[in-house]
Structure formats: C-alpha cells, structure tokens
Design brief:
By secondary structure, the chain is an alpha/beta fold. It has helices at residues 29-43, 70-73, 77-96, 112-119, 144-165, 171-176, 189-202, 205-219, 226-231, 239-250, and strands at 5-10, 13-18, 50-55, 60-62, 101-105, 108-110, 122-126, 130-132, 169-170, 182-184. Helix 4 crosses helix 5.
Length: 259
C-alpha cells in the first residue's frame, strides 16, 4: 500500500483507509487504482470476513475526485475515458466483492466518495456527515457505471434530485432517503462501524457470500433458473451449517470455518 491508501488487518476484518486528510481524502487516479487492486486482492482472500472502508483525519470519508488533477488527467474526453476506465473497474471490484463491505463515514461523503459508499453493503455515519453529488456545478456527467450503485441504493427520484439540484443532504435526510444504513452520534461512528464488521465476521462467511450473490442476481431482473433456485440449499452440505446448528443446540458461540 502507498501512503494514499492504508491497509490494516485485525483478525478477519480488514480496513482500507483513504489517507489524504490534507485534501479531505479527495480521490486521485492512483488512489482509485490502488483501491480497485486492493478490493480484487482481498476478494480472493478466503480468510477475510469483512472489509471496512473509511477516510483518515475524522473530517471526511471523501469529497470525490481531486479537482486539481483535472487540468492534466481529465482535461478532455480521451483523458476522461482512460480515467473513467480506472474508476469503473474499481467500482465494479467493490460491487462484486464477495466479502461484506462496511463504509465508516465521518464528515463529507460527496461525488466519487458517495459512489464508493454506495457500493458498500452497509453505510454507518455520524450526525455531522453530509452527502451529495453536485457535479453539475463542474459541468460533469456521472457515467452509467458510476450511477448504477447510487440508483440501486436510493432509487430514481433521489438520484435525480441529487444530480439536478446539487443539494447537499444532512445525515438525517440521507438516512430517510436510504443513502445511510445507520446514523449514530459522531463520537460513536468508529465504534459502531467496527462493531458491525465484527458481528459480520462472526457469521458464516459462505452464507454472507451467497446472500450477496443472490441479491445481485435478483437485481438483474432475469428469471431465476431451476439450478439457481437449487443453489439456495447447498448450504446444508457445508461444514459451517453443521457447526452452526450444533452450536445453537449446545448454546455456545459458533466458530465458523468458511467451508
């Protein structure tokens, strides 16, 4: 990891932290690249049970892309296509990650930061957090690949409102609109996010992966096949199922193995 993206592991929980606090964790081309590579690498790691995404500094998750890069990295359509390909690969890597993703949101979560948070499975924020996508003020379009997760999360009406008005939502309204999973006092955001990640990590990892896969499949709108329906019963042949139900009967905490 470079200094722009920090990685820390505690047990089965991995933290990826945007580390540009002097710029409120504004995203650079290299940071997008590193985040996508890290997401793909961790996706292949069977020992990972949960991933926490956050910003450093306590003031921002991320305000989106670093505008100072635009003059030399996104000054025309051809440059923007190359930059966009990196962004879109990273958003796909996050959306397709088998492991549950928790966004720990302190402060600003805008533009590309909101796109990343929308790719996470849970979003936990503090009362002072702010959300939006005021990119029309920059003359920018949110491309299809960037719109997808936000649209799935908040729906057409809220997505259009954010894009057309460029209004910044406070944490309470973001929660009401479905952008946020859980809203807690600022001082409790870190504790609550890691408590959530720990609870996830204590569950059966194969089950988490199946649930994420099934929901993505349902979102496609294509009819579920008989073989896909049958996949819902494969959990009964796993070691984790034996561990889980036996632990329940014995009134002890299960120690899942992921197999």
């Amino acid at each position: 990891m470079s200094e722009e993206l920090l990685e820390r592991r505690e047990g089965a929980v991995v933290t990826l932290a945007f580390n540009r606090p002097q710029k409120l964790n504004a995203l650079t081309k290299s940071l997008w690249q590193e985040l996508g590579a890290a997401a793909r690498r961790l996706d292949a790691d069977e020992s990972v049970r949960a991933i926490v995404l956050r910003g450093t500094g306590g003031k921002a998750f991320s305000p989106g892309n670093d505008i100072s890069e635009f003059a030399h990295e996104r000054s025309n359509a051809e440059q923007a296509r190359r930059y966009g390909a990196i962004m879109h690969e990273t958003l796909s890597a996050l959306s397709e990650c088998r492991h549950p993703l928790v966004a720990l949101i302190e402060g600003v979560c805008v533009g590309g930061g909101l796109e990343i948070a929308a790719c996470c499975d849970l979003r936990i924020c503090g009362e002072s957090s702010r959300f939006g996508a005021p990119i029309a003020r920059l003359g920018l379009v949110m491309a299809y690949a960037e719109l997808m997760a936000l649209w799935r999360l908040a729906g057409r009406a809220t997505t259009l409102e954010l894009l057309l008005e460029g209004r910044i939502l406070d944490a309470r309204e973001a929660r009401e609109r479905g952008l946020v999973t859980r809203l807690v006092p600022d001082a409790e955001v870190e504790r609550e996010a890691y408590s959530s990640a720990t609870r996830i990590a204590e569950g059966a990892p194969l089950v988490h992966r199946w649930h994420k896969k099934f929901l993505r499949r349902l979102e496609s709108g294509v009819p579920i096949t008989a073989a896909e329906q049958d996949e819902g019963f494969l959990c009964f042949d796993t070691r984790d199922f034996q561990i889980g139900y036996q632990a329940f009967l014995a009134k002890r905490k299960p120690q899942f193995e992921g197999r």
